[in-house]
Amino acid sequence: MINPFRGFSAVFYKEALHVRRDFGTLFFSLIIPLLQMFLLGFGIDTNIRQINTVVYNADGHRESRELLDRLRNSDTFNLVRFVNTDHDLTDAIISGKCRVGIKIPVDYSDKLLHQMSAQVLVLIDGSDSSVAGQAINVTTAIGLDESLRRVLAASGTTTFAVDMRPKILFNPDSRSPNFFLPGLTAILLLNVTTFLTAFSIVREKERGTLEQLFVTPVRPMGLLLGKLLPYLMIGFFELCMILTFMRFIFSVPIHGSVLLLALLSLPYIFVSLSLGILISSKANSQAEAMQLAFLTILPSIFFSGYIFPRETMPKFFFILSYFVPATYFIDITRGIILRGAGWVHLWIDAVALFFMGIMLLVIAARRFQNKVIMA
Amino acid sequence: MADSEKPAISAEHLVRRFGSFTAVNDVSFRVEKGEIFGFLGPNGSGKTTVIKMLTGLLPLSGGDASVLGIDVRKDPETVRENIGYMSQNFSLYADLTVTENLTFYGRIYGLSNDRLRQRMDDIVQLNGLSPYMNRLAAQLSGGWKQRLALGCAMLHEPKLIFLDEPTAGIDPVARRQLWDLLFELSAHGITFFVTTHYMDEAERCSHVAYLYYGKLIADGTPDSLRELPDVQPPGTYRVEITTPEVTRALRFARTIPGIRSATIFGQSVHALINDDLDLDHLRYQLLKQGIVVAEIRPLAPSLEDVFVELTYKHQSDSEASRD
């Protein structure tokens, strides 16, 4: 007798009218993520290159100059400053002008000539861990390489016994946008869609129309789904815009099926809209809703594997990352866009998202039901 | 479904507690079909709580309520299907037109397109909204907003409509027009449950009740309330003393033996006096104080008088029971 979705079509009709009436404002809010994508896509390079480096070359002979050339050619170091005292060397790092300092001692070439171990001091600014890591790796590799060459030359052979040839699949040039933008898509989409539903319901609270709806036969599920569906369409439209931008402005190739990507984005949009609805069940003003929505954004950025790999997280946060919807969608976007993954590889992500969405929606509906009764 | 013999609303010993606070304390009343029931009381006295209980939004802590013969405890959904509700802020969608607002509420109640169109015609004819159909609700004046809200609340032909302070913030002309409309609808058998702060509106109701901090202290037709012994004790009557010096007259009148109580109403003082107090003597006593009296005439108690008397009575009773 009681239809749990009562009022769905009426609410859908009304919501669609709201959207049409105020399409200008809405469209503007859909443009903002594209602008953010523009900034981040052009502005961020995740590869570490051309680290500012200060050099104190106390030796000055041919061997020392050869070593500096090898550092320069690695593309990792940019030798921007040459000094003549230890003090100036450390000072360049403390002042922040250089991240790496290299001191070649006065006896460098002499020791090499006498087949002794020549030491090179490498000072690294540890305040940025990824820069420091890259500097350690590259200087160590150059040192080893240099040593091997000398050992080989002395023994008369010219070939390495083992020659490692790494080959990077899927993003061979290590282009930052290719890696960065598929993840960003998930974050931007979350950002927009959560606000859409949260604001739509909180506005009704502020104006008192929600109270009026509760005195009608509308059921909470009918109300929430009627609100959700129009914004699902808008969220999908937003996704299409973001993908178009990514593909044609940033030339990120999509290796897998675009259709599958579009299809699998629906459960993700559904989750973020449901999250917005859950927020609206708690917040009583748009300012409050905004704060709560921001609360969900940071975990989505840091625990989803978007910036830091999930595998290196402490156990607790690794488990936590399973509760972050963006985790699954980033897996989907990187999978399809970079690796050309298909339904077989990704269906589990879609199912996880779908269930999360249902859960959030049911919790929100219950909260609204209780609120009706308790208000 | 509702038996025609049954009252529109029957509330028996309603109780609502919020923690240790009792917002509604043993409230009982009946509203017959076709009545305009005025539900009065100061802010925070529990009027809205009672409406929420009757519309099934708030569970009862005690007592029973049936609305249109439907048990509110058992079937709040069906209650909501059959009533209309208009809140004090009219709850319209400002960015939707008049037609769209009406269509939305029509669909909420599951009206078919044909029926919706017909009901919209009826309502528009009744409340004169036709020139504004394509206007956004935001652009309507307060009075028109209120008529639109009433239209939305009665699209589905409810037999009972709750109006929570329908005339707050509305200009006097629109206020009167709304009441004319209510009378017309009530003549067609629709029952209204109206909360208001305006005493002149209370006078227009066919049945009034007064809620004072959770307790119902008056319930009846305006005339029957005027005749209550607490309002008009035997051996007393009410007079209106018209004078330019109302404040001094009031202060002095309260010292005269034989005057039970006195209050200012505009340019006059209303006093409850003993039958044996001679009016000429009263006028003379006032004059001795330098208070010129233009007129003293007998007066039937207004509803405001009624509620004031009953509130005093209730206060002194509850103080007595506390001691």
What would you say about this model in short?
The complex is a heterodimer of chains A (375) and B (323). Chain A is mainly alpha-helical.
Defining key terms:
heterodimer; A: 375 residues; mainly alpha; abc type-2 transporter like fold; 2 domains; 4-stranded mixed β-sheet; 4 strands; 67% helix; 6% strand; B: 323 residues; alpha/beta; Rossmann fold; Alpha-Beta Plaits; 6-stranded mixed β-sheet; 4-stranded antiparallel β-sheet; 11 helices
Report on the architecture of this protein.
The complex is a heterodimer of chains A (375) and B (323). With 375 residues, chain A is mainly alpha-helical. Chain A has 14 helices and four strands. Chain A has helices at residues 8-21, 23-43, 62-73, 86-94, 108-113, 129-155, 176-207, 209-214, 220-248, 258-282, 286-302, 315-321, 325-339, 343-374, and strands at 51-57, 77-82, 100-104, 121-124. Chain A is elongated. The two termini of chain A are 26 Å apart. Chain B is α/β, with parallel strands linked by helices. Chain B has two domains: 9-222, Rossmann fold; 233-300, Alpha-Beta Plaits, CATH 3.30.70. In chain B, a hairpin with a 2-residue loop joins strand 12 (259-265) and strand 13. The mean pLDDT of chain B is 89. The A-B interface holds A 2, 6-7, 9-11, 13-14, 17-18, 21-22, 207-209, 211-218, 372-375 and B 52, 55, 57-59, 77, 80-81, 83, 85, 87, 89, 91-96, 100, 103-105, 107-110, 162.
Query: How many domains is the backbone of chain A divided into?
Result: 2
The CATH architecture of the largest domain in chain B: 3-Layer(aba) Sandwich
| Number of helices in the DSSP assignment of chain A | 14
Major β-sheet profile of chain A: 4 strands, mixed
The helix count of chain B comes to: 11
Rg over C-alpha atoms of chain A, rounded to the nearest angstrom? 28 Å
Shape of chain B: globular
